[in-house]
Amino acid sequence: MSKGQFITLEGTEGAGKSTAAVAIADWLMGRGVDLVISREPGGTALGEMLRSVLLDPNTGNLAAESELLMMFAARAQHIMQIIQPALEAGKWVLCDRFTDASFAYQGGGRGLSFERIEELEQWVHPHLQPDLTLLFDLPVEEGLQRAGRRNFPDRFEQEKVAFFTQVREAYLRRMEQFPGRVKLVDASQNVEQVFCQAQALIEPLF
Ligand code: TMP
């Protein structure tokens, strides 16, 4: 049985990643792909519990290290329980965020060293990388304006422009580092155009 494909979706707030995820999933399933849809932090019972803590504004200030380690604790469980078994069974996995988000948010946003995050990456998933990462990119101000319509911002959404600017820069740096894997989607375009870009980038995986 052939190994499945592992696709991850990344981007800053308000980039339309979640809307695109639904359209991409429908399209893949329509093409007969046996698809597992998941997200990080989350995807397992433990992961969803950690997600609640990480996103709840009542959690307040976390040490950046605690935040990073919880992301990787959720990830280790997610890989063991969901991602690895699915890929080994020949299924495709579409995951809303993965390790690039830790580099962007905890590295870029919180200022933790990229080397330290690489150590965790090497420890938790030395042999697993996405086959394709779609980076939904748009100017920070534009994204925040879109996301600003949400009534109850989570712990990350409460951050300021400077934080998201660092996150975006770190994401773009990941793309420069891994040009074969991380592909840019111009998220300033309309929903249909964004979906078309995603389709064109996923097509070669078939
Ligand atoms: P979401 O709202 O796009 O589902 O993502 C949840 C939040 O978690 C988002 O603000 C980004 C953040 N996050 C990190 O800070 N580090 C990570 O490793 C992951 C996976 C998500």
Q: What percent of the residues sit in helical stretches (DSSP H or I)?
A: 40-55%
Strand content: 5-15%
CATH C-level name? Alpha Beta
Q: State the separation between the terminal residues, measured CA to CA.
A: 15 Å
The hetero molecules present are: thymidine-5'-phosphate
CATH architecture, by name, is 3-Layer(aba) Sandwich
Helical segment count: 8
Provide the CATH topology.
Rossmann fold
Major sheet: size, sense and barrel closure? 5 strands, parallel
What is the CATH homologous superfamily assignment?
Answer: P-loop containing nucleotide triphosphate hydrolases
Arrangement of strands in the largest sheet = 2-3-1-4-5
> What is the typical, i.e. mean, pLDDT?
96
Q: Which consecutive residue ranges, at least 5 long each, have pLDDT under 50?
A: none
- Find the structural class using helix and strand composition: alpha/beta
What is the H/E order? EHEHHEHHEHHEH
Gyration radius, rounded: 16 Å
Work out the number of β strands.
5
What is the general shape? globular
Give the number of domains: 1
Describe this structure in a few short sentences.
With 206 residues, this protein is of the alpha/beta class. It is 53% helix and 13% strand. A five-stranded parallel sheet has the order 2-3-1-4-5, with helices on both faces.
